[in-house]
Amino acid sequence: MASVSSPVPAFPCNSGFISRQKFKPSRRALWVDNRRRSHLNPIRASQDGGPLQYRKLGDSDLMVSEIALGTMTFGEQNTEKEAHELLSYSIDHGINTLDTAEAYPIPMKKETQGRTDLYIGNWLKSRPRDKVILATKVCGYSERSSYIRDNASVLRVDAANIKESVEKSLKRLSTDYIDLLQIHWPDRYVALFGEFSYDPSKWRPSVPFAEQLRAFQELIDEGKVRYIGVSNETSYGVMEFIHAAKDEGLPKIVSIQNSYSLLVRCKFEGSNRAIH
User: Fold this and answer.
1) Is 70 helix (H, G, I), strand (E, B) or coil?
2) Rounded to whole angstroms, how far apart are CA atoms 255 and 121?
3) How far is CA 83 from the centre of its chain?
4) Most buried residue among 76, 100, 221, 275 by CB atoms closer than 10 A?
5) Could you give the count of Cα atoms lying within 13 Å of 198 in the half-sphere of its Cβ?
């Protein structure tokens, strides 16, 4: 049971409004919650059954666990030993999908960039590669994170940046292929990371959707990437990627990874959901 300082709408569309709500669980609610936690069993799941289910990811042939393990704290809040323990526990109990990114850990810093991948790569050396679905991300447009590339003043989602990103990710992860490569955030300007409305003054020229897909096609043809997806994307961006793939015979995105929770619903339910 919980009380709030003011009513929460059934369909919250103002993220700023929701973020200001002060949830105050009662002492009894906290006691009940802790009591329930003490009786929870560890995750028990397998491909043959159990509470954790597996789903086909979009149009791909990837069967992913309904729960994936996010790793953005590995190398910042978590040591390598802790990361390996978390990875082993998750995989041993049915989770088969790991989500990482070249930008991790968070917060993004030159001193720690790529450390998450290194921790995963070291752990992966002792595991059957075909039992793990590895999802990673290439950075979108950024003027502040050029240190991620060897010779770039600005990060872009073009062929050169994508290729360099994948080659470095493969090396850090100690693997020769990526199951799912996603664009972490778009090359074009969109309202993200604290922005709730589009600012026309921030518009900039962007890499065409088809050009981005052609770069991914080359990596798929080389066997370095199996499938592609997007992250922090809008309904407009998703539809443009779909149209470009259809019109030019290029690979189709099979996934979208956006913020979506009880407190962050509007951008997905009011926009991207209309795509289905």
Assistant:
1) strand
2) 23
3) 18
4) 100
5) 9
Retrieve residue 143's tokens.
């003027």
The one-letter code for the residue type at 187 is D
Mean pLDDT per 10-residue section of the chain, whose length is 276 residues: 36 37 39 38 52 93 97 98 98 96 97 98 97 98 96 96 98 98 97 86 97 98 98 95 98 94 75 57
Q: Specify the pairing of strand 69-70 against strand 63-65.
A: unpaired
Which residues, listed in sequence order, are joined to residue 182 by a DSSP beta bridge? 137, 229
Following DSSP, what letter does each residue of 41-98 receive, concatenated?
Answer: PPP--BTTBSSS-EEE-TTSS-EEESS-EE-TTBTTTB-HHHHHHHHHHHHHTT--EE
**Distance between CA atoms of residues 250 and 242, nearest Å:** 9
- For 65, the 3-state DSSP assignment is strand
Around Cβ 16, how many Cβ atoms within 10 Å? 8
The predicted model scores a pTM of 0.82
**DSSP state at residue 49:** B
- H or E, element range at 63: strand 63-65
CB atoms within 10 A of CB 261: 8
In our burial notation (b when 16+ CB lie closer than 10 A, e otherwise), range 100-128 reads bbbbbbeebeeeebbbbbbbbbbbbeeee
Fill in the amino acid letter for 255. S
Q: Which residues are catalytic?
A: 104
- Over the stretch 105-156, which tens digit does the pLDDT of each residue have? 999 999 999 999 999 999 999 999 999 999 999 999 999 999 999 999 999 9
- The answer to whether the beta carbons of residues 205 and 242 sit under 8 Å apart is no
Q: What is the DSSP letter of 46?
A: B
Per the structure block, which two tokens stand in for 62? 């990837």
Buried b (16+ CB within 10 A) or exposed e, 174-183: ebebbbbbbb
Distant-in-sequence, close-in-space partners of 118: CB < 8 Å, separation ≥ 6: 75, 172
